[in-house]
Amino acid sequence: MCLISIRRKSKKSEKRNKEISKEKDEGRNEWEKEK
């Protein structure tokens, strides 16, 4: 039971991390353009 919930949590955080890194990349690209 515990393992399953942990795995589910890690999957969610993994997805969130991907979204965050995508946003960071986009922000970096915008910053590079303005430079």
What are the key terms here?
single chain; 35 residues; mainly alpha; 1 helix; 94% helix; plasmid
How much helicity do the residues have? Answer: over 70%
* Order of H and E elements: H
Largest sheet properties: none
End-to-end CA span? 51 Å
How many beta strands in the DSSP annotation? Answer: 0
What is the typical, i.e. mean, pLDDT? 83
Radius of gyration: 15 Å
Number of helices: 1
From the helix content, strand content and strand pairing, which structural class follows? mainly alpha
Biased composition (Basic residues): 1-15
Region (Disordered): 1-35
Keywords: Plasmid
Biased composition (Basic and acidic residues): 16-35
Which SSEs are present, and which pair or pack?
Blueprint: H1 2-34
State the gist of this model.
The protein contains one helix and no strands. The chain is mainly α.
What would you note in describing this structure?
- It is a single chain.
- The mean pLDDT is 83.
- This protein is 94% helix and 0% strand.
- By secondary structure, it is mainly α.
- The longest helix has 33 residues, at 2-34.
